[in-house]
Amino acid sequence: MALSHFTAAMAAAKPFPGARTFLNARVKWVRDPYLDKAVENEKNLKPLLSLKALIVSQPSKTLPLRIISPLRPQLRLPTTALDFVRKYHYLFKLFRPPNMRLSTPHVKLTPKALSLHNDEMLITGLSHYRKDLAERLAKLLMIARARRLPLGVIDKFRFDLGLPHDYLLSFLPEFPDYFQICDMVADNPSPLGPQEFGLELVRWRDDLSVSVMEKQWRGEDSETRRRGPIRFPMNLPRGFDLEKRVKNWVDEWQNLPYISPYEDAFHLNPSSDQAEKWAVAVIHEVLNLLVSKKTEKENLYYLGDYLGFGMRFKKALAHHPGIFYVSNKISTQTVVLREAFNKNLLIEKHPLIGLRYKYIYLMNLVLRRGIPIHAAAIRNRERLASIKGRNIGKEGRGQRLARIGDRYHGNQN
C-alpha cells in the first residue's frame, strides 16, 4: 500500500507521544432532533424495499402472501406480512388471481409503486451511476489491508452503499477489472468466525486512494494549507458544551497529523491519540462512501472487528460527538456524519436518495375521508388542535378536533 505525502510529513515532524492524553471526562450525549428526524424518516424503508425487490424479481411481478410470511425474519418485517402490506397500501396491493379458485391472497405493487420502481431501474442502470457505485465499493475494499472483505461484511453495507439486492449476479460481473470473488479460508480464524467467500479488489487503484478529507484539503488555498494539518469539521448541536479540558484536548488532537484511511497505520500504539485520529479518519471515510452518510452502529463495529480496530471504533464515536452523531431512533443505533446534513436534510443528495424519498412519501400517505393525506400533515393538525384547545374554554376536545378536521378537509376540496 503506497504511503501518501501526509505520512511522509508525519515521519519528518516532531514525534508525538504514544500514550493517550484524552482525559477521563464524560462526553455527554445530547439529542439532535434534526438528525433524529433524518433517521426516523426512513423507518421501515429497508424492509419495504426488500419486499419490493422480492416481488418484482418474480416473472409475474406478484407473490403469494403465504410465500412472504415465512420470510419475515430475512426481510426484517416489523409486523406480520399481512399487516405490513396493509399498512403500506399505496405501495402494495392485495388481490386474488381470478383464474385460481380458493386461491390465497397475492401481493403486487400498486401502479404508483411500479412506476417508481421503473424510474429506479432507469437511473440505477445508467453507466455513470454504476461506475460511481463500483468506485465507492472499490474504496471500501481498499480500506481493508488485504483489499478484500467477507461477503457478510459487504452485505451489512449493501443498502447503505446502494448495491442492488442481487449485486453478485447483476452488478459485479460488469466490472471484472475491479472485483473478483475470493476464498476467505486463508483469513481464518477471523474475528467474525468462519468466512468462506469474500470480495477482493483485483488491483490497487492509486486514483481512488484519496480520501474526502484530502480532496477538501487540496482544494483549499495555499495559505490555509500552511496553517496546519487536516482538521475534521465539528458541528456541535445547540445546548452542547464541552468541558474546557475536553475542548483543549480536542484542539490538540485536531492538530495531530492526518493519516489517510487508505494507509496502514496499525504500527501505532492503539491507545494513542494519533491512532484514534486515524480510526476517526477511517469511520469518516466509510460514512462518506455511503449514499445516506449514515449506517447502523453495529455495521461499523462489524467492519471494525474484521479490520482489526476492536474497541477503537467505539471510543472514536464516544469521544467525537461533533463529528459523529449516534441516534437511538427506530429501535436501533445509527451513526450519522454530522457535516453531511443541514438540519435533517442531506446537503448533497445522491440520485438514489431522491428515489428513496419518493418511496417514503408514499409510505406516509394515509386516507382521510377518501382523500390521500400525508401523515405528517395530520400530526401537525392534531398538535395545532391541542395548542388551540388550551385557550378555547369549555369547547370539548372532540368538538375541537372535528371542527379543525372539517376545516382542513374543506380546504382540500
Automatic annotation (TrEMBL):
User: Which GO molecular function annotations are given, in alphabetical order?
Assistant: RNA binding
Q: What InterPro entries does this protein map onto?
A: PORR_domain, PORR_fam
Q: Where does the PORR domain start and stop, copy by copy?
A: 30-365
Specify the superkingdom. Answer: Eukaryota
Output this protein's name.
PORR domain-containing protein
The protein's organism comes out as Cuscuta campestris
